[in-house]
Write a structure and sequence with these properties.
By secondary structure, this protein is α/β, with parallel strands linked by helices. The chain is 44% helix and 10% strand. The chain is built from ten helices and eight strands.
Length: 343
């Protein structure tokens, strides 16, 4: 990350705040890091939990003092590296330190002085760093941004998040960097709380905590001073076993949820298959398998209007004044019917 990476104009189109016209979900659906290309004007997508960002009290003063220190440290590191009298390996008997040991000593002292400068001037904000490959960045960004505004991250000190957009030209092995901002990177308890949420609730691969002052003066992993580019490494805040355990809990819960969803879908499908389907009604003696419902209805109408040539077996027996012969034939019944209708 470079100095300008933490500076965003007030009218930046690709930033969402609680006062934005569109909802957060609409913003995330419209602007995806895998789809938005950086042409020099849109390097980041941003989401803020607060309408206004916390302002550092002494950014200019802290940056000026830290830059002077960084120049001094870089010069000392170069001298150690070029001093042929300093051995490559240490010698305990002679009490001499190696080049590496001397460099690390200077770098450690510089790290402590940078912390003092940050706290003295009140410029202590910073961010957790997360990297995501292009095929997963949209899902990772959606999870982090939503969590910040309405999810587990919303109850922590984290106040903003951003993700790098895609490069215009194809870049081999490119990874998107995500930042989750906190007001004070030297507040260990607060930083660890954000870390726990990112691990347990989102299963994130964390790359350490970087101070905004470090970004301001240009400290990164390739800086010639060799000063560590992060103020906190993961294992300095939490044991490796706990980090692993929190992530395993997240993925176990995720897999259980997916399995339950698959089972529910399978059960619903099985129930649909077992559900009996209504059979189409057919008239007795209907041999035409290609007849449709309309044909059946027309035929039923025609038959109901035509005179019956055969007696209906289910027609209720005609009432007679005196009818003791239960064995009367159908023909005799037909002979009786006209007589009664005429009476």
């Amino acid at each position: 990350m470079e100095k300008q990476d933490d500076v965003i104009s007030a009218a930046y189109k690709y930033e969402w705040t609680p006062g934005s016209d569109m909802s957060l979900q609409d913003f995330l659906a419209k602007y995806k890091p895998s789809m938005v290309q950086d042409d020099g004007t849109k390097p980041w997508l941003l989401v803020r939990k607060l309408e206004t960002l916390p302002q550092g009290k002494g950014v200019i003063q802290a940056a000026a003092e830290a830059s002077d220190l960084l120049s001094e440290v870089t010069e000392r590191i170069e001298k150690i590296q070029n001093d042929s009298s300093i051995p490559i390996r240490s010698n305990k008997k002679k009490g001499t330190k190696s080049k590496k040991e001397l460099r690390e000593q200077v770098q450690h002292e510089a790290t402590e002085k940078l912390r003092e400068i940050s706290q003295k001037h009140g410029y202590v904000s910073g961010k957790w760093l997360i990297f995501a490959p292009p095929d997963k960045v949209d899902a990772v960004w959606n999870a982090v941004a939503t969590s910040l505004v309405t999810g587990p991250l919303s109850s922590t000190s984290a106040y903003a998040a951003k993700v790098a957009t895609s490069p215009e030209n194809e870049t081999p092995n490119y990874n998107h960097v995500l930042c989750v901002y906190m007001p004070d990177v030297y507040d260990r308890a607060s930083v660890a709380e954000v870390m726990r949420v990112l691990l347990r609730n989102h299963g994130m691969n964390l790359m350490g905590v970087k101070s905004d002052l470090y970004t301001e003066i240009g400290i990164d992993s390739k800086h010639p001073s060799g000063i560590p580019s992060t103020v906190w490494k993961n294992t300095a805040l939490m044991k490796d076993t706990e980090i692993k355990s929190l992530k395993e809990e997240y993925f176990a819960e995720l897999n259980a949820s997916r399995t339950a969803t698959i089972k529910e879908g399978a059960a619903a499908k099985a129930a649909e298959i077992k559900k009996p389907r209504p059979k189409p009604k057919k008239k007795a003696g209907d041999d035409n398998p290609f007849a449709d419902d309309e044909d059946d209805q027309e035929e039923e109408k025609a038959e109901s209007s035509a005179p019956s040539s055969k007696p209906k077996s289910k027609k209720p027996a005609m009432k007679r004044k005196v009818d003791t012969d239960v064995f009367v034939s159908d023909e005799e019944a037909e002979d009786e019917a006209p007589k009664k209708s005429r009476s």
